[in-house]
Amino acid sequence: MPTSGFTLSSPDFADGARLPDPVAFEAPGANISPTLVWQGAPAGTLSYALTCFDPDAPTGSGWWHWLVINLPASVQQLAAGAGESDATLPAGARHMRTDYGQYAWGGPHPPAGHGPHRYQFTVFALDVPALDLPAEVSAAVVGFNLNAHALAKATLTGLYER
């Protein structure tokens, strides 16, 4: 899948660096989603989606911390705290259920002493204006649909440990 020129960044952390404490699920965190900015989407992009996945969670299948679909093509950033609820997202966008069972950002909360976990934020440039998915579908179904409609994707990885 082409990614040339399509990038995801954050003023809150650099790629491969430690995530700031405010994004963590519990103290010292405040469960505030980070600011994310993307640019360079390919021609034909009709919407975006955003995910955050921890492949290091000791579940055998990772952990989905954030799933946002139907971000309008005119949107190229999410402010800190946008993951609080659908009301804090751009018009038309919506959260899908995370592995916390919530429809919102669920910050990092790796097991104490488990070592650093990678939190992979990925923005997808999609070839459809919206995904018509039932709210209760699994993260795997969301991921299948994102990959089926992706023109490009860009990933930014942050680290966190307790």
UniProtKB/TrEMBL annotation:
GO MF annotation, one: protein kinase inhibitor activity
Alphabetical list of InterPro entries matching this protein: PEBP (IPR008914), PEBP-like_sf (IPR036610), YbhB_YbcL/LppC-like (IPR005247)
Domain of life: Bacteria
Record key words, sorted: Protein kinase inhibitor
Gene3D superfamilies associated with the record: PEBP-like
A Pfam match: PBP
Residues in the signal sequence: none
Database matches in NCBIfam families: YbhB/YbcL family Raf kinase inhibitor-like protein
Name under which the protein is recorded: Phosphatidylethanolamine-binding protein
Organism: Laribacter hongkongensis
